[in-house]
């Protein structure tokens, strides 16, 4: 499952860079995703990613971090499935300033690099 960790690390690095360079476009994209006819289907993605992260723990030198990320993704999927969409749309992340999104982008970028380097 090392290929999956490589894929996730590359996605996180790209996501972090995009959040740093154009945070308004990221928020606009996320808002448009929630305008979908059935936004609950979006919960399937973090559920699948979380399960695959838990299966790929043995392919990383920092398995505890991969377990935490997998459990966080599964918790995100449960949150999306159970919480009303209007509450998700009013989440604090959508009203965060540009510098706040850039700071989160830096954290996501660092996380992606850590996962990339820690593959066995």
Task: Characterize this entry briefly.
This protein has 120 residues and is mostly helical. It is built from six helices and no strands.
Tell me about this structure:
The protein is mainly alpha-helical. Helix content is 74%, strand content 0%. It contains six helices and no strands. The chain has helices at 2-21, 23-34, 44-55, 63-82, 85-89, 98-117. Helix 1 crosses helix 2 (23-34), helix 1 runs antiparallel to helix 6 and helix 3 runs antiparallel to helix 4 (63-82). The model has no long low-confidence stretch (mean pLDDT 92).
Number of contiguous helices: 6
Structural class: mainly alpha
The residue ranges in which pLDDT falls below 50 over 5 or more consecutive positions are: none
Extended strand count = 0
Summarize the helices and strands and which ones pair or pack.
Elements: H1 2-21, H2 23-34, H3 44-55, H4 63-82, H5 85-89, H6 98-117
Helix pairs in contact: 1-2, 1-6, 3-4
Descriptive terms for the model:
120 residues; mainly alpha; 6 helices; 74% helix; globular
